[in-house]
Amino acid sequence: MTPLAVLASADALATVMVVPTGVGCATGGFAGDALPAARLLAAASGCLITHPNVVNGAALYWRDPRLHYVEGWALDRFTAGDLDLRPARSQRLGLLLDAGIEDDLRLRHLQVADGCRATLGLDIGPVVTTDAPLAVSLERGPSGASWGSLGRPDALLRAGERLRAAGATAIAVVARFPDDPGSRALAAYRQGSGVDALAGAEAVISHLLSRHLLLPCAHAPALQPLALQRGLDPRAAGEELGTTFLPCVLVGLSRAPDLVARPSLGWITPPSTTPPLTNAPVEGPLLRRGQIGAVVAPAGALGGEAVLACVERGVPLIAVDNPCVLEVTAAALALAETGATVLPAAGYAEAAGLLLALREGIAPAALRRPLDSLEC
To answer: Tell me: the pLDDT tens digits for 277-295?
Structure first.
């Protein structure tokens, strides 16, 4: 029996699912609209490791013991072998609020957190406000992908350190994002044809904080509610259910696995302002890189670190037809020349079938027709 006994059943095929943030994927580029696909892959594999972009749906979420919520930077480090994942029964959630959030918007987020405490039984607190506004700015790259920057990353890190010192074991961040209700980009996104303009900047915030603190982290943007609109794309409709994006983040982090550093495998040294990491004995089974049995990603977005780290180790790659603004395909990366196992899938239902085949030890080639004869 493998150390997956707590994380998943012994016969599970640990699978990494990646849908890159801010690149307009048809599935996964909106308000948690990849969650049905993630649930299906979790059922097929028995153990799915994925990142918040896949399953965060504003006020909508879904708990599944087979689905493990790992921030994007930490997921990259896990696939590279720098981190292990340790199951957690619950996390104490620190809430980090941007000093740039107006009083009424701050109150809404605090009330949402209280609602999650009262209704869902989550352990939330302490709450810390940054000592300066974070000053988030949004940008768009030449490819059309979204990204962004922080004017005061130091204020973010200091607030995170205060939460960690106060006993938080995971951190939910709420930063004030620019409102632009009349923009063409927002209109296109709400109609289902654009890129999420916030996602790239959100990734910058969570990556920075996770790396600095070595704690599970995720981000929810603070925005003023948008006006009601007819003809909204269903994939964007999850954002219309409430006044904040915080509930899914709190639920996801509440049972996110702990991040356990492995210095012997090239651990990246944290910034000097972070207290040194302690190598305390780790209790319970761990999920390690060597247990990954498959990685699933959009066929046009295969250039991410997690995907390439898995491919480098010979992990089968299921490349799903999931259009986005990128064209980083297996052919563009010349993966066939490296001997990588790339299994094309027309959608996530077919990807689930391929995962079941791998889990049962059935060669995917045996399922395709025509089936070529062997040659000497």
So the answer is: 433 444 568 999 999 999 9
Contact present, 299 and 321 (Cβ < 8 Å): yes
In the numeric block, which tokens belong to residue 253?
Answer: 């982090």
In this structure, the chain runs to a length of 376
How wide is the angle at C-alpha 157 spanned by C-alphas 16 and 170, nearest 5°? 45
- Burial label for 62, CB within 10 Å (0-12, 13-18, 19+), is middle
pLDDT in tens, 118-170: 999 999 999 999 999 999 988 887 877 887 889 999 999 999 999 999 999 99
- Torsion sign (Cα): 354, 360, 364, 369: negative
CA dihedral 77, 79, 83, 88 (to 10 degrees): 110
Q: Where are the alpha helices (DSSP H) in the chain?
A: 35-45, 52-55, 72-80, 103-120, 153-165, 184-190, 199-213, 246-254, 305-312, 348-359
Phi/psi at 184 (5° precision) = -65, -35
- 175-205 burial: b if 16+ Cβ within 10 Å, else e: bbbeeeeeeebbeebbebebbbbbbbbbbbb
Torsion-angle region of residue 6: left (phi > 0), alpha (psi -120 to 50) or beta? alpha
Round the CA-based radius of gyration of the chain to a whole number and report it: 20
CB-based contact 190:233 (threshold 8 Å): yes
> Which sign does the torsion angle of CA 28, 21, 301, 170 carry?
negative
Q: If you count DSSP H runs as helices and E runs as strands, how many of each does the chain have, helices first? A: 10, 14
β-bridge pairing 292-298 and 317-320: parallel
Q: What is the pLDDT of residue 218?
A: 96
Whether 96 contacts 173, CB under 8 Å: yes
Tracing tokens 């701050």 back to the chain, one arrives at 106
Mean pLDDT of 82-111: 96
Question: Which burial class, exposed, middle or buried, applies to 120 when counting CB atoms under 10 A from its CB (0-12, 13-18, 19+)?
Answer: middle
The answer to whether 246 and 174 have CB atoms below 8 angstroms apart is: yes
Look up the pTM and report it: 0.90
